Each structure stands twice: as C-alpha cells, then as structure tokens.
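Now for today's protein:

——
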Amino acid sequence: MRELSCDVAVIGAGTAGIAAHRAALDAGVKAVLIEQGPGGTTCARVGCMPSKLLITAAEAAHAARAADRLGIRIGDVRVDGPAVLVRMRALRDRFVASVFEGLDGLPEDTRLHGRAVFEGPDALRIDDHTRLRFKAAVLATGSSPSVPEPLKGLGSRILTTDTVFEIADLPASLAVLGAGPVGLELAQAMARLGVATSVFDPGDSLGGLGDPDLKRAAREIFSEAFDLHLGVKVESGAIEGEGARLGWKGDVGEGQKTFERVLSAAGRPPNVAGIGLEQTGVTLNDKGGPVHDPRSLICEGAPILIAGDANADRPVLHEASRQGRIAGRNAARLARGEGAARPERWVALAMVFSDPQIAVIGGGFDRQAGHRVGRADFCDQGRARVMDRAQGGLRLYAEADGRLAAAELIGPEVEHLGHLLAYAVQDGLDVRRLRDRPFYHPTLEEGLDTALSDLA
C-alpha cells in the first residue's frame, strides 16, 4: 500500500466536493479529491437535470391536450414513452459529461479513485491501494435514496430516484411514495405522460408547503392530476404477477392496489455510514452523522468539515456549491493552523418544479412566530388568467416592524417570484421599501404587490 500525504483531503466528487477541492487549491494548499462511484454529481446524473427533462416533456403533452381551451385544435396526443426517455438520457449524459470534462482538467496527482475510510483523525485508507495522511478533510459523500422496509423485497418492481431515469419505457401504472418536492415533481410528470399514478404520504402537505390555505389549495390542484393519498402509510408490498401489490392504512381508512412499478421518493439519507467516522473522534448525532457548526461546517471533535447532502441540512445544489466553497477554504485555514471563517447563511430557498410551481422562502409558515400575513391569490389574477393558469396563491410573513421574514407560494412560474422574495428577505427589506418598487402590468409579479398592499 502506497503512503501519500496532503494538506486537505476531499472525500466525494459531487457538487460540494468539487467546489471544496477547487477552493482549497485556490487557497494555495495541496488538496486531493477522492472519487467513488459513477460520478457526474447527483444533480446532473439523477436529480435536477433528468427530472426537469422529464417534466418538460410532460408539460408539452399537457399543453397540447389543454390547447383546446384556447381554441387551438390539435387532435389526439400520443406519448412515445421510449422516445421521451431516450431524449432525457441523451441530454442528461451531456450534462454529466461536462462535469467529467472539468475534472479531467485537474492534475493527476490531485485525484484518487476508490472508497475512502477513516483510519483515524488524520488518515484515510482508499480501497486497499493507498493510505492518505491529511491535516484537514472535507466530507462531501452525498446521499442515497432510501427504500421503506416493507418494499425491499419487490426487486425490479421498486424504483428509486437513482433508477427511475434508466427505465426503457413508461410503466402503465406507478405508485409514488413521498409527496415532497421530488415525489411531487415526478408523480405529476408521469401522470401527464399517461401513467396511471398514485401518491402516498403519511403527512398532510405537498411539496413542503406549511400554510394551511396553500396546503388546501395544493391538495385540490394535485388531486385532479393523480390519485392522492395523504395521511396514510404504506405497510406492505408483495410481488403480484408483473407488478407489486401495496397495502396501506391511514386516518381515512385502508386499501390495497396493484401497480406495475413503485417509486420510492421518501428521502435520501446522507452517505456517512461505514466510512470509519467513529475512528476520527468526531461527535456523532443520533443518526450517525457528525455534529457540526452550520456556518463554518467544522465537525465537533476533529479537523473534518462536512458539506452538501452529506450533512442533511439543505440538500439543494446552490447550498451544496456554497458549502463546498466554505468547507474548502476553511479546511485550508485549518491545515495552515489558522482560524476558520463563519459566514452568514443564505436565506433558505426551496422550489418545486411542479405545475403550478411551489416556492418556500425563509422556512415558510411558522405558527409559533406570530408573523403578520400578507395574502394574494392567483385564481383571479390578470396575467394568470391570461395564461390560463389561474391557480394557487402567495403568502408573505412579516415581523411586527414590517421586515419580511418568510414566504410561501404556489402558482404559475413562481420560481421567479421566489428568487425576488429570497433576495428581499436576505437583504432585510421591509414592506414599505419593497412595495416602493416598479411592478409592471400585466405580470405575475403584481401578485407580490397585492400581498404587500395587504400587509401595509
């Protein structure tokens, strides 16, 4: 086994790991990036990009079917499932290839391949070929999809957010477990592509919404798109013919049904098990992950930092990229014996690319916070009606002094309004200052003006 040393070891070559490695190199230290698995980042390979490609095809099919409402006669709409999936994978693979191109430009001595396991607070073993000594390490091992225990015997009938994009054709029917952002996006896309889709979730919310009014609106909207079962738990799964028979129970009763495929979209736990963290001296939480400072990203008890999906904090790409940069710079500081920086966190920003879209800013609705609430609805808003997409609403939450604290939205193309509100909350704007801005007519952004007026 060869012996190597470096200042900073970065474990994982996803979004956070690549950013951390680059930041450490830019800081002037010797950094080594350790890669395991297929690579290409979760976002490009099995996350943001393939899901949006599938959603785009589904939106095209839906728009064609709905064109009759606008006086446009299209006729029968036929979805070619294999062709949709082939196009999705071809473009997905281009995004993944661009990631690999960036890595291929790195000097060979800054990359290692294999599974890294800690042997102590300053040493890693990579497979059986290399022992790497380090002064600081960045843990950026990402996450993996989970499968509920009752469904683990379903074999090829169970899909995950890693495998669903590899199917050769669309199934005739699909059960989706999980009504969070990923489950909601994929369920609606599959339904619009002609798949008989059912969604199951033990909670009462869709896409992370917390506001009671918006939760009700979401249930009404999406129950028209697919078979929706909230407040239920899937308790059994068994192979039946070419499909899987699920059994569930909930407050409103119980049921059973057979589906051709089942998609587990109930979360992606961090990849922190079995990598020797107990050998490092870091303090572990009840889930086996390192206790860490959410600003400096330093783990308690060792010169190890944790970034991206591995810390299970904010598993979205823009946060993973920023956390990687912070972790890489701080790892370089620790390697030089310097103090770490603790930059302020960005305002929390989460989005769901369903139709209508969902955005939650600053944590959204908080029943205990006592916020003032500004309301606006898209159901009768001018631009939304013109677009034939008049659904949903907007809620602003403000402190007593008028400063914006959070927001929740469900409506047409609210990804844009979501960004505007995230900047407003991040910059500490109050209702008066944000209202004193131009709102062009007719735009969806006029809904923000309405909600601000309600607050004022």
Summary: The mean pLDDT is 95.
